Each structure stands twice: as C-alpha cells, then as structure tokens.
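Re: How this chain folds, sequence and tokenised backbone to follow

Filed under: protein folding, tokenised backbone structure, sequence and structure records.

Contents: The amino acid chain and a row of whole-number tokens, matched residue for residue.

Body of memo: The sequence and its backbone structure tokens, given next.
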Amino acid sequence: MEVSGDPKSDKQTWRFPREFWLVNLMELCERAAYYGFFIVLTLYLTDVVGFSDRETGFVGGIFLCRSLSAAALHGAIGDKIGFKKGLMLAFGSSERATFFWGFS
C-alpha cells in the first residue's frame, strides 16, 4: 500500500502490484468454476437423471463435503512433501486422468 507523498493532499491512494490483481482474478475464476459446476450438477441431477430435490441436495452435500475435505487433505500432503514435488504430483495425476478420460 502506498500513501500519496503530497502533504497538501489528505487523500490516500491505494496501489497494489500487478500480481495482486492477477491472484484475485484467478481466485474469482476459480470460484466461478466451482459454483458453476455445482449449479450444473444440480440441474443435471434433477432434469436429466430425474432426482428429487431432496436426493439432489443429498448428492450436492456429499460433493461439497468431499471437495472440502480433499482440499484440506491435499494441502497437508503438499505441505509435507514440498511445493515442487506437490506441483509435479498434481500435474502428473491430472495428466493421467486426462489420458484415461479419453478411453471412457
């Protein structure tokens, strides 16, 4: 945070580095993807599969619980094995999943 150096000006100017705005934009995109998927999941379960609202809520609750617990678990594993190894593990598992996705 920088404050204007002009003593005549009582106005504060907030300036953040470019990386700050990039990280915030990435966070907004991540949240939009997560909540967008949750909306698509509930619409799919009710309209295509034919689940009731109660069944869809149950499946959505399981999805939410598993995604939050997976984040905590994988964060702990990443802290234990380190940043570089964790990143390589994430990219490697994503690559394998994408490869086998082609066979489904």
The two ends are 51 Å apart (CA to CA). Residues 18-101 form one domain. The chain is about 75% helix and 0% strand.
